[in-house]
Structures are given as C-alpha cells and as structure tokens.
Amino acid sequence: MKLATRAATVTELLTGEYPDAATEIDYGSPWELLVATVLSAQCTDVRVNKVTPELFARWPRPEDLASASQEDVETMIRSTGMFRQKASSLRAAAGIVVSEYGGEVPEDLDALVALPGVGRKTAKVVLGEAFGIAAGVTVDTHVRRLARRLDLTRLEDPEKIAAELEALLPQEEWIKLSTRLILHGRRVCSARSPRCDECVLAEVCPRVGV
C-alpha cells in the first residue's frame, strides 16, 4: 500500500473509532489548557487533572499566577514532577501573557513558543484544542510510536515526524489525527503490549517493531 493511501486509510479508520476525539486534559479556558499542558510534560493527564482544580481555584487568571510565590506554586504542582522548573516557567509565562497580551493567550504559534515552558508541541495543542487552529500535527510519545509502527515515518525527531505527517494529510485533519493517535496509543497500541487482535488498524498496519 502506498504511503499516502495508508495515511488516508488510517485517518479514516481512526475517525470512525474516535469520532468525538478530544484531549483528556480538563480545562475551561485557553489559559487553563496552556497551564495544564505545560504540567503534563513527563506526567500523565490523569495526574494533571487531579492537580489543576485546586490550582485554578486558587489562581484562576494569569495575573493571579504571576503574583503567586514560587514556593506556593511548587507545593501545589509537586506531584506532576519537575515542579520547580514548571512553577518558574508558569509564573513567568503568566507575567508575559498579562504584560504583553492583556491577560489573553495569544493565538499565534511563534508567540506561544516564546513563552517560558511552552514548546512547539504545547503550542500546537493549545492552538488546536482551544482555538481550532491547525498549526501542525502534535507528536508526543504515542504519536511517534504509532507513526513508526504504521510505517508512516522512519524518523526519530518529533518535529521531523510532524513535518512528514503534515505533508501526507490535509491540514483539516492535523488536529484530530494527533488526538486520535494519542487515544489509540493509550487504549490499544501500547508500547509493550499492543492489542493487535483488537485494533481497528490491524489490516493496514505493517506492525513495524512489534
């Protein structure tokens, strides 16, 4: 099967399997999504969702978090890991959002990536989920693993993988494809024990590395 055909088929099958796919991070605003996505680095969404309700209740707006003490924020987010770096980045990012963007999360990839703690992956998630802007395919550990197993890429670098996937698919598929691959990676195509016999992609998957 040609690469473009397999990519299109994978997209169609995953759309049928996860028609209402959405991030599993709980959020109520673009700012909350940005904070939660920063916290999700090296941490599960489940853990983040346990931390953020209290965090957002105490510091609901960027200006609130910007004025919070480093120690208080560290204590609140300790269980997400790398809490000192995350607390510092979030407080600094909050200050910039307030001073440069009037307290509103910018709807621009470069502006988001310029915020402390926000990489291209986080920026793409925020733009896609919060604003419906398809800035690119988000490649996390699940997307990387599935893209390689499906032989949609043979690259290692997440941004290079993203570029390959973006070249294979129409832009309107970028946001949901990322989410669907993440959900499928969590629920079916796990790293160690993929359930190939239950997989909707079984007939088109070359099972590279399995």
Task: List key phrases describing it.
Endonuclease Iii, domain 2; single chain; 210 residues; mainly alpha; Endonuclease III, domain 1; 11 helices
Tell me about this structure:
With 210 residues, the protein is mainly α. It has 2 domains: 3-22 and 136-198, Helix-hairpin-Helix base-excision DNA repair enzymes (C-terminal) (Endonuclease Iii, domain 2), CATH 1.10.1670.10; 30-131, Orthogonal Bundle (Endonuclease III, domain 1), CATH 1.10.340. 58% of the residues lie in helices and 0% in strands. It contains 11 helices and no strands. α2 packs antiparallel against α8 (120-131), α5 crosses α6 (83-101) and α9 crosses α11. The protein is elongated, with a radius of gyration of 18 Å. The two termini are 19 Å apart. The model has no long low-confidence stretch (mean pLDDT 96).
Produce the secondary structure layout.
Layout: H1 3-17, H2 30-39, H3 45-58, H4 62-66, H5 70-77, H6 83-101, H7 109-113, H8 120-131, H9 141-149, H10 158-168, H11 174-187
Helix pairs in contact: 2-3, 2-8, 5-6, 9-11
